[in-house]
Design brief:
The chain is an alpha+beta fold. It has helices spanning 2-31, 54-69, 118-122, 148-151, 231-241, 253-260, 262-296, 298-306, 311-340, 356-382, 386-390; strands spanning 42-49, 74-80, 94-95, 110-114, 126-129, 143-147, 163-165, 173-180, 197-201, 215-223, 247-252.
């Protein structure tokens, strides 16, 4: 019964270790994903806009960007109505010059309203065309910047110069000025749909669209220093323009990325803790079982040594018994792992549920640990004094 328990313990340990290893590999691969923007040295904060005068809102944010940009250690400043790896609205869009889609089948895209410096501040790379500039204003033709995913709606055409609208008829029409890289909006693992994105120019936003309800605007500050060290200074500039302005969700972009992978990190840590506990219990189990067996077989070992057995023979005897149980547990654990890890496919990213490297390294690790657990009692067995052992015969 002791032997059966040891085999089952080793098998369970191997299964948990393999699962933890796959999750660790997946988490490492997720952190290596390029989100489409630069996460380092980027401070974000949200401001609630609750002003019935649209012109004052536009003026406030223009002045705020200038003031924050003048702070020491600030490289660039931008604003947007949304952030990557957060929630977003999905209005439909229509391509001018093409037949209208059937009702309810118009394509959707994530809409951002951003300042001209947003792309530079976020580190979003321009692929084609141009970005917003100072010449774009409420009195100039409306322009829009799209991402690579939306550009795929023009498979045999140059998207630059094409026109989009957000209504089938009667709405404003935007000319595509540039194409930028796609930004991960929901998660880094890319399991969500690659939803197209388009960007409207904050400076071309009519003032009459601002009155009404409270809106949240994100202030983004790209720094040359630790971003959190400038949080107080940026808050000071906001208070200087409006002491009653609410500021909340002050975070770095690295914190936002970290929060986006929090569920995956939790699953990884939870299974890893269980695997480590199982590994410790397996070590204790093998060690305790062999130590007990050595104590029970003291007279037998003494007799073997009296009849000429060498220390290496005794060690081989003890280690061989323990390793047979460990190998049986490893084989059983591999079978269980191949069967159970298939249920983890939804938790994995960039790694197969039967990844041979993970299975091989975990098996090797468990074999080495089991060998160490066997070696200590085996060495104690070689120190048995044959005379003392046979005195009881």
């Amino acid at each position: 019964m002791r032997n059966v328990l040891i085999v089952c313990e080793v098998a369970l340990t191997l299964t948990l270790l393999v699962g933890a290893g796959l999750l660790i590999q997946s988490f490492r691969r997720v952190l290596q994903v390029d989100p489409g923007f630069e996460t380092q040295n980027l401070l974000t904060m949200q401001l609630s806009v609750n002003n019935t005068n649209g012109d004052q809102v536009v003026s406030f944010f223009k002045q705020l960007q200038e003031n924050v940009r003048s702070l020491p250690g600030v490289r660039s400043v931008g604003i947007s109505n949304g952030l990557p790896l957060g929630g977003a609205n999905h209005p439909v869009f229509f391509i001018q010059g093409r037949p209208l889609p059937e009702p309810g089948k118009a394509p959707g895209a994530i809409r951002y309203t951003v300042s001209p410096d947003y792309f530079q501040t976020m580190g979003i790379e321009l692929v084609k065309g141009r970005l917003f500039n100072a010449q774009d204003s409420s009195s100039t033709p409306l322009v829009v910047v799209i991402d690579e995913a939306l550009a795929q709606h023009f498979p045999n055409e140059d998207p630059i110069g094409q026109r989009l609208s957000q209504a089938a008829s009667g709405g404003p029409i935007y000319e595509i000025a540039g194409v930028v890289r796609h930004v991960e909006q929901y998660s880094l693992d890319g399991q969500a749909a690659r939803t197209p994105q388009f960007y409207l120019n904050f400076n071309q936003m009519p003032a009459e669209r601002w009155p009404g309800s409270v809106r949240r605007i994100n202030l983004l500050t790209r720094t040359d220093v630790e971003p959190t060290s400038l949080a107080a200074a940026v808050r000071g500039q906001i208070a200087a323009l409006n002491k009653d302005q609410a500021v909340f969700n002050v975070r770095t972009m690295e914190e936002i990325v970290s929060q986006s992978v929090a569920p995956r990190r939790f699953s990884m840590l939870l299974l890893t803790v269980f695997a480590i506990v199982a590994l410790v219990l397996a070590i204790i189990g093998i060690y305790g079982m062999l130590s007990y067996a050595v104590a029970q077989r003291t007279r037998e070992i003494g007799l073997r040594m009296t009849l000429g057995a060498q220390r290496t023979d005794v060690m081989r005897l003890v280690i061989g018994h323990g390793m047979k149980l460990a190998i049986a547990g490893v084989v059983l654990g591999l079978i269980a792992s191949f069967a159970l890890t298939r249920t983890m496919k939804n938790l994995l990213f960039g790694v197969s549920a039967t990844d041979p490297i993970t299975f091989g390294l975990i098996t090797l690790l468990l074999a080495v640990v089991a060998l160490l657990a066997c070696w200590i009692p085996a060495r104690r067995a070689t120190k048995v004094d044959p005379i003392v052992a046979l005195r009881y015969e």
